[in-house]
Write a structure and sequence with these properties.
Elements (H helix, E strand, L loop, with lengths): L3 H24 L13 E7 L6 E6 L6 E3 L7 E2 L2 E2 L3 E2 L5 E2 L8 E7 H5 L7 H6 L1 E3 L3 E9 L6 H10 L3 H4 L1 E2 L2
Antiparallel strand pairs: 1-7, 1-10, 2-3, 2-8, 4-5, 6-7, 8-9, 10-11
């Protein structure tokens, strides 16, 4: 009997501690939490220089060939171009589908959109201005998890939680 009472006391204290943890976690219910289920991810990044108006392409892992590039007709959204959206602290919200092997062409979206046809891969490769432009790249989960994408991302940035809440790729 003497052993059971201390065990019950320890058990009940353990339960009280856990309820406090649950309670404090529920207090933060207004804080955005990314959803990393399968789907189109929200990519946030920083670059070495201002490439915001330049067309991105995707390179192979060894950065010797272009594996993905847009057609000139695919870089518009209505009457505007799919430039990245600026966020706080120099971060950018991707609108084109970049990844860790992104590179930027010397061509602006406007000039690229006016091409009558896509140059061949060798010509495109020669137009690359930077094969390693990223200083940071984060996957912030599914777009559908956001109610106000830019505002919620800026909150993560302002609270220094971008690299904690999102998956750091680079």
């Amino acid at each position: 009997m003497k052993i059971i009472i201390p065990i019950l006391i320890i058990f009940s204290l353990g339960c009280n501690t856990n309820s406090k943890v649950v309670q404090s976690a529920s207090d933060k219910s207004d804080e955005f939490v990314p959803d990393f289920a399968a789907g189109v991810p929200v990519m946030v990044y920083k670059t070495k220089a201002d490439y915001n108006k330049l067309v991105p392409v995707i390179l192979s892992d060894d950065k010797t060939t272009i594996v993905s590039y847009p057609h000139p007709n695919d870089i518009r959204s209505g009457n505007s171009f799919q430039f990245p959206d600026p966020l706080h602290d120099g971060y950018l919200l991707d609108n084109r589908g970049i990844g860790k092997n992104v590179a930027f062409l010397k061509l602006s979206y406007e000039k690229y959109a006016n091409l009558e046809s896509v140059p061949d891969l060798k010509q495109l490769f020669e137009l690359i201005i930077d094969k390693d432009p990223l200083t940071e790249l984060c996957n912030c989960g599914l777009k559908t998890a956001f109610t106000d994408e830019q505002a919620q991302l800026n909150e993560l940035i302002d609270a220094n939680k971008m690299r904690k809440s999102c998956k750091v790729i680079k």
